[in-house]
Specification:
Length: about 280
Amino acid sequence: KMVALVRELDIDGFRFDAPGYNHFPNWSPRTRARASVQELGALPLFRTLRRTLHELDPDLMLYTEPNTPLFREAMDLNYNYDETWLPDSIFGRGGDHPGSRVRNARDLARWLTERDATLPEGSVTAHHLDSHDTFWWPLPGSKWRREQIGRDASRALMTAFALSGGPYMMFVGGEDGMQEQVAAVNRIRASRPELAHGSHRFGMDGVVSDDLFVVRHQSGDNRSVLLANLSNRPVTEDLRYHLPGAWQDLLGTRPVADSTVELAPYAAAFWVVSR
């Protein structure tokens, strides 16, 4: 059926919801009727399906939610269900900050670096703040991230995720109150090839503030740096020795003087090498 959809309707991708819940045969009579028991039962099918569909269209995309290495090897794209706890942890919702949690922007960069290092080569993650699932889980009044951590913090984290490299997604309605920032972010994504095709490195030596989230991108001669303040305090950093040269902020309106960044609470900059 899926091959027919591609051939007849030129379908360019499929999303699989909860593939770990299925009714594949199970050798255990006691667990045959429990869908969640055969969590990996769909993997052989996905591997064959991906190979077959890519022969029809190499650009076709298979997309799902599980983040384990086996599901990542069977899919082209996975979204960041394993990151859904990060906003609460970074912005102190509930006030619980044991040492094992991600407490600030520096911790976030380290966590993403270590998480990505555990994934199969070529794994692609779509970041999100709100999804169809995260929206439906909470009670009314605390469904959206903007209701949980505040609109300014949500805008900052959306910018950080969207300009970290690779894809990002938003649930319809999640953009309320940040439409201008979403439009600005999407213009940058459309104009900078290194965001889609380059290398991405989280963090940067020499940054003093724990609240400054940094991602460096490069693809050939195209270089850029995301700087996002994930706190309710202003941040000032002198990066002239770490980012030499002339830069332009695509989220601002003027060249960056002496590679010094001054960011208001929950503000962001996207620097590119001036030419």
